[in-house]
Amino acid sequence: MNYLRLTIIIFIVLAAISFFLLPTSQIVTRSSFFDIRVKTDPKILKNENYQEAPMVLAKSSVVLDAKTGDVLYEKNPTSRLLPASTTKLLTALTALENCSLDQVVTVDYVEKEPTQMGLFYGDKLTVESLLYGLLVSSGNDAAYVLAYSCSPSVADFVSNMNEKARQLG
Prior knowledge:
The structure is a single chain. By secondary structure, the chain is an alpha+beta fold. The chain has helices at 3-20, 42-46, 84-98, 127-135, 140-149, 154-168; strands at 27-31, 36-40, 61-64, 71-75, 104-106, 124-126. It has a four-stranded antiparallel β-sheet with strand order 1-2-4-3. The protein has a two-stranded antiparallel ribbon with strand order 5-6.
């Protein structure tokens, strides 16, 4: 199994496991500065070693108990945000399923979005290099090249991404 694919799988597995290790919820506390609600087990609150939940700098976040669906922590839970990195992970997974890492592709279109790998028209790169540009540099230009190189069309690639998202729940 390839190192990049293994890294992505390990990241997803660790994220899933972290949901199972959080305590079940009973008590809700609030912060007046942000719309933050933290639920904790009352036994933890009686422990003299109890510490406040760490400050979360994200604009919005939610932590769920994967077994029960209970909300363990939320901060501005109704804020609408762009999926950004989640989309890039789905792009990487879809590319890995539809292209080989050593496949060489030619850049036929350069996306001018703010985050770029730095591709130029006519560049020839492996899919593996594009995945690094996508995941490390957050390169939208790499995402577009992967989409049109690992599928008959960008629309087909997006359809494959949506199917992968449904499979992952």
